[in-house]
């Protein structure tokens, strides 16, 4: 495994007087599930919006495969293979699930009609239905608008859409917020199978159980900065909560010139309190936590 | 998930059954396909109102109302308003509004007349130049509207109120406040020409309406129009170029106003600088009566066509019956409120 698939360094973003992100870092390796956690207002959604081209950062760098990129629009992030389930603005309620599914990438009729901009309704409906069912989202009818679906069904459609189109990364900003136990379990399964198909997943959720269940790694955001990283496997609840609330300060002034890019380095050698637990199976190389951290 | 759930749309079918409209409910029960073909409940409902009006007036005045002469007149009178209302349908579906259409109509008529006068006003070339100038003028105003709404982030109500004043005032400045006469050849030609017994102006209006109705329902342009009105943030995040699309929609409304300006020159023979200050309200009323939601995201051209004809039939029928024509305004106002009330009521029934 080589360098990170997606890396954000020193991202800053303010809305008027509110500093949503103050030099936030983020790392995502190929084919892993990373949970991005933090208190309300920590800046998680803002970071996701920046990494998916919805907003542009005031400062900082985004690297994909090590190359710096600038996303001027959602379209550019999509071209890079990034799809997003946003926390708030997921779907057009007046459109059908299929119309939402294909919004911005409509399938046109073959031939002349297609060149005139005629939509291939049937093709889109069939495909959308297939993809939703593949992910366990059952829709009674595909001719009703999304506004008639339950919150959970809507979330299902949004997740299915993102997962279908993503080639490299899916960001999911609280995708299970409206879901029941069974459906949540299904989304978690889905996240795993997406990961197994080679697409990296970034999950944002406040449910620590889910975080622990599905994450290969966990990154913690606090007051607009990354303050800790954990391996998902065996981090304790206390550590997560501590990192989120700031009770447990770790990585800051961390030393870290340690062999970050050495996948064979025994993670167990790292003290737990450092917040870094490098024995996560899928994360060969964790990059230095700190260098950017305390700029 | 917090996707706003509001408004209706033609694709919606099941929930229509909750409406007060028994026919739509029955039409909906055999299957989603049928209602979809019939359109949304509001169209069916309001279509029945139109049919009822036609039947009542025909029964009351069979010899004067239900004549092809009278009905053709009625349609010809409505044809120009229909163009404005179709453009307005697109705009309102994006959850915008265009108050400027009457002003753009007049202004385009004036520029077209000026150009035709300057080029002789008799040759076919001059008259064709007139229509090009009229439509271009409308287009430019429309682009201005759209750019201010999309990129200037000024509410459409304000933008188009501003351009209404600017275009009406501009037209008065250009004409010195005196109505200009259209070229005689235009007034006596296109203004009177018929094809298969139907005025050419009506054919033009019908053709434009058909094309734009199909585009709205079947093409990507229409799909994006609905998406923006439904949830512009979600549309943007899905890769729809929202600002560009908004400019195109307002430009379309302007273009149609320009065409309407030219046809109105042909039909009435004057620029009518002071006769179009309520065109915008008539167009909006027609669109809303036709079931297009002022909140955006829902509406059809079919509904708008019906919405144009309800006031037109009322006016014509009242005239023939000898009812004071002022009653038409009163009744149309009431129908308008009823239509919006119905829309809200159904939406509430659905959203709970
Ligand atoms: N559009 C905006 N305008 C102004 N302030 C904003 C905007 N978006 C976010 N903020 C502010 O930025 C900070 C971070 O917000 P963000 O939505 O990223 O938090 P979050 O970590 O996603 O929280 P939550 O868990 O509640 O979703 C908050 O203080 C918020 O008030
Ligand atoms: Mg958030």
From TrEMBL, chain A:
Residues 262-279 have a biased composition (Basic and acidic residues). It comes from Actinoallomurus spadix. Pfam families: ABC_tran. One of its GO terms (molecular function) is ATP binding. Signal peptide: none annotated. Residues 6-248 form the ABC transporter domain. SUPFAM superfamilies: P-loop containing nucleoside triphosphate hydrolases. Gene3D superfamilies: P-loop containing nucleotide triphosphate hydrolases. This is ATP-binding cassette domain-containing protein. Keywords: ATP-binding, Nucleotide-binding. Residues 248-295 are annotated as: Disordered. It comes from the Bacteria.
TrEMBL record, chain B:
It comes from Actinoallomurus spadix. InterPro entries: ABC_transp_permease. Keywords: Cell membrane, Membrane, Transmembrane, Transmembrane helix. It comes from the Bacteria. Residues 1-10 have a biased composition (Polar residues). The keyword Transmembrane helix applies. This is ABC transporter permease. The chain crosses the membrane at residues 44-60, 80-107, 127-148, 154-174, 195-217, 281-314, 326-342. It is found in: Cell membrane. Residues 1-30 are annotated as: Disordered. The keyword Nucleotide-binding does not apply. It is a multi-pass membrane protein. Pfam families: BPD_transp_2 (PF02653).
């Amino acid at each position: 495994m080589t360098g990170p698939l997606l890396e954000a360094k020193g991202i800053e973003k303010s809305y008027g007087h509110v500093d949503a992100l103050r030099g936030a870092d983020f790392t995502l390796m190929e084919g892993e599930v990373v949970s991005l956690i933090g208190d309300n207002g920590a800046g998680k959604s803002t970071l996701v919006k920046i990494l998916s081209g919805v907003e542009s950062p005031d400062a900082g760098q985004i690297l994909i495969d090590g190359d710096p990129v600038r996303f001027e629009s959602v379209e550019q992030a999509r071209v890079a293979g990034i799809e997003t389930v946003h926390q708030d603005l997921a779907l057009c309620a007046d459109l059908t699930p299929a119309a939402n599914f294909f919004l911005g990438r409509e399938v046109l009729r073959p031939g002349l009609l297609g060149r005139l901009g005629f939509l291939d309704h049937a093709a889109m409906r069939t495909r959308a239905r297939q993809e939703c069912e593949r992910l366990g989202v059952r829709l009674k009818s595909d001719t009703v608008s999304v506004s008639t679906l339950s919150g959970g069904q809507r979330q299902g459609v949004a997740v299915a859409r993102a997962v279908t189109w993503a080639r490299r990364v899916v960001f999911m900003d609280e995708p299970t917020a409206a879901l029941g136990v069974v459906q949540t379990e299904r989304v978690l399964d889905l996240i795993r199978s997406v990961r197994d198909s080679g697409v990296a997943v970034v999950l944002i959720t406040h449910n620590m159980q889910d975080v622990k269940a599905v994450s290969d790694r966990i990154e913690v955001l606090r007051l607009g900065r990354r303050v800790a990283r954990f391996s998902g496997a065996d981090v304790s609840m206390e550590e997560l909560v501590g990192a989120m609330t700031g009770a447990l300060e770790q990585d800051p002034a961390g030393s870290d010139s340690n062999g970050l890019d050495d996948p064979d380095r025994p993670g167990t050698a790292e003290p737990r309190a450092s917040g870094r637990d490098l024995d996560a199976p899928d994360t060969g190389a964790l990059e230095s936590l700190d260098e950017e951290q305390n700029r | 998930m917090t996707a706003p759930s509001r408004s209706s749309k033609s694709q919606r079918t099941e929930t229509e059954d909750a409406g007060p409209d028994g026919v739509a409910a029955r039409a909906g029960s055999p299957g989603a396909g049928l209602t979809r073909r019939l359109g949304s409940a509001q169209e069916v409902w309001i279509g029945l109102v139109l049919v009822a009006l036609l039947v009542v007036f025909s029964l009351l005045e069979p010899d004067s109302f239900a004549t092809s002469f009278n009905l053709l007149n009625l349609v010809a009178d409505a044809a120009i308003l229909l163009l404005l209302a179709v453009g307005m349908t697109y705009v309102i579906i994006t959850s915008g509004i265009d108050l400027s259409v009457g002003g753009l109509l007049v202004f385009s008529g004036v520029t077209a007349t000026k150009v035709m006068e300057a080029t002789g006003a008799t040759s076919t070339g001059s008259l064709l130049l007139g229509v090009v100038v009229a439509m271009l003028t409308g287009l430019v105003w429309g682009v201005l509207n759209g750019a201010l709404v999309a990129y200037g982030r000024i509410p459409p109500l304000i933008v188009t109120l501003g351009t209404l004043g600017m275009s009406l005032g501009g037209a008065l400045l250009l004409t010195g406040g005196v109505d200009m006469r259209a070229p005689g050849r235009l007034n006596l030609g296109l203004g009177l020409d018929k094809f298969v017994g139907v005025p050419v102006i009506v054919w033009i209006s019908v053709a434009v309406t058909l094309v734009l109705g199909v585009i709205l329902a079947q093409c990507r342009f229409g799909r994006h129009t609905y998406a923006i009105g439904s949830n512009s943030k979600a549309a943007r995040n899905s890769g729809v170029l929202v600002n560009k699309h908004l400019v195109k929609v307002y430009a379309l409304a302007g273009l149609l106003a320009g065409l309407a300006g030219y046809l109105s020159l042909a039909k009435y023979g004057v620029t009518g600088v002071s006769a179009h200050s309520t065109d915008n309200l008539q167009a909006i009323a027609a669109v809303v009566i036709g079931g297009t939601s002022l909140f955006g995201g829902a509406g059809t051209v079919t509904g708008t066509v019906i919405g144009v004809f309800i006031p037109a039939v009322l006016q014509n029928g009242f005239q023939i019956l000898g009812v004071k024509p002022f009653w038409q305004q009163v009744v149309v106002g009431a129908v308008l409120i009823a239509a919006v009330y119905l829309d809200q009521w159904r939406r509430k029934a659905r959203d709970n």
